[in-house]
Amino acid sequence: MQFRLTETSCNEILYEGSLPDDFHSEKGLEEQKILLDHRKGKAEVTESWFRGMHINSGTLLLYDDLKLKAETDTSVLEMHFSLSGISEQRFEGESKLSSFSHLQHNFYYMPYVEGEVSIKKQNGPCQFFEVHLSEEYFKRLANEDCRILSRMAEMIDRKSAVIMSKQNLVITPQMQMIIQEIVNSPKKGVFKRLFLEAKVLELLMLQIEQYEENNSSKLQLLTIQESDMAKLHHAKFLVEQNLSHPLSLRELAHEVGLNDFKLKKGFKELFGYTVFGYLHELRMQEATRLLQDRRRSISEVAEYCGYEYVQHFNTAFKKKFGLTPGNYR
């Protein structure tokens, strides 16, 4: 597998690399760290691979907007998790622009990759976690009785692009914990390989369960006018960007150009949450991430997540996860 990233404004190759077929390693497991330093930003990426599976996690800090051309010479089957930041991409042959925002995930297959990735300069780092599965490995999983896996396997056989969910799904705290376990695993050798494979399969199971649960609850087609779709997505973006000091419902409606009723009804229909239900979900997920940093006090985490009183934060956190922030930590 050969791949290349090119900065499009000056046609400068930022990174070129290769991985063995089926991600096979004679050592059983291989790992490497990649550091990139460029005038537009810097990146730190850690890779691990073994037969059937390639794991990629990294952080990107930008000084300026970045547009990349991404190319590979083989198909890509990717579990993608956007932990922070916002990116947009358009692949060759597709007219539609797709994007990943803070705490979103999806699972997709591309028979080949040649496209553009755009990332705007942001206040903080962009963090991502990806797993690439070989077609052979995936098809062994798809033999099981699972509708979405079977459908994706059929599309792979046809060499047709496919994505698990038309709308990106929200990364749950359980998914975040598994990702942290993978990234921070101290295990070595065969034990680490077994651990990584088990955790990736657990993560894939959670993706599929969430997708099927969301789909089983959809009883009717969307009734939202196409002209309102972009406004609702912008409202979602504004909620994500203002966790500590959220806009009121009226302010949010005014910002995106919808009335209160259309905003409330459309947001729930399109994203499956009320506006403030989504805000609460994001705050709780952000809290689980911040609590992993023991240098932060619980009161600091509560304040960052928009809670004036730490006891209100403790109550909300325990109601959501069944344990207090202190016990979670």
UniProtKB/TrEMBL annotation:
Molecular functions per Gene Ontology: DNA-binding transcription factor activity; sequence-specific DNA binding
Keywords noted in UniProt: DNA-binding, Transcription, Transcription regulation
Domain HTH araC/xylS-type intervals: 233-329
SUPFAM superfamilies per record: Homeodomain-like
Xref: Pfam families: HTH_18
PANTHER family registered for this protein in UniProt: REGULATORY PROTEIN PCHR
Protein's recorded name: AraC-type DNA-binding protein
Taxonomic source organism: Pseudarcicella hirudinis
Taxon lineage: Bacteria, Pseudomonadati, Bacteroidota, Cytophagia, Cytophagales
